Amino acid sequence: MSPVAESLNKLLANYQVHYQKLRNYHWNVRGPMFFDLHMKFEEMYTGAALKVDELAERVLALGTKPLSTLKEQLAAATLAEDAGDPDALGMVANTLADLEALNTELRAAAKQAGEAGDDGTFNLLEPFADEQEKTAWMLRAYLG
Ligand SMILES: [Fe+2]
Fold this sequence. Notes:
It is globular, with a radius of gyration of 15 Å. The termini are far apart. It contains 5 helices and no strands. It has one domain (3-143): Ferritin (Up-down Bundle). By secondary structure, it is mainly α. The longest helix is centred in the N-terminal third of the chain and has 28 residues, at 34-61. Helix 1 crosses helix 3 (70-76) and helix 4 (88-115) packs antiparallel against helix 5. It has helices spanning 3-28, 34-61, 70-76, 88-115, 119-143. Bound molecules: fe (ii) ion. Residues 26, 42 line the site of fe (ii) ion.
């Protein structure tokens, strides 16, 4: 597997964990911010699901098999699942930390792809990071 495909598979694994955490938070958020956060987490997990698909299909386009089972994905992921029961602001803080980790990983993988002459992967990843840096700012603003 090429180093770029390996990075894409690790991103895919991390996005699967991120996706499930957002669903968890969408379901379990409580308190006076419920309606805002219930909707925001849904918007974010919908975006994460689309990214999982784009990443997997880029891995295939590079001639490699994407990590396709939860077992493989969890083994490859560096984001941790949330087995706890955070309050609403804790959920936002955890989501922000995950986005920042994903952004760092996206920029590094895009740079690696650019250096390898893989413009398709570079062009796929950079807009993800651009969008998510804006989302991270909004989550930081929300946290005050
Ligand atoms: Fe729902």
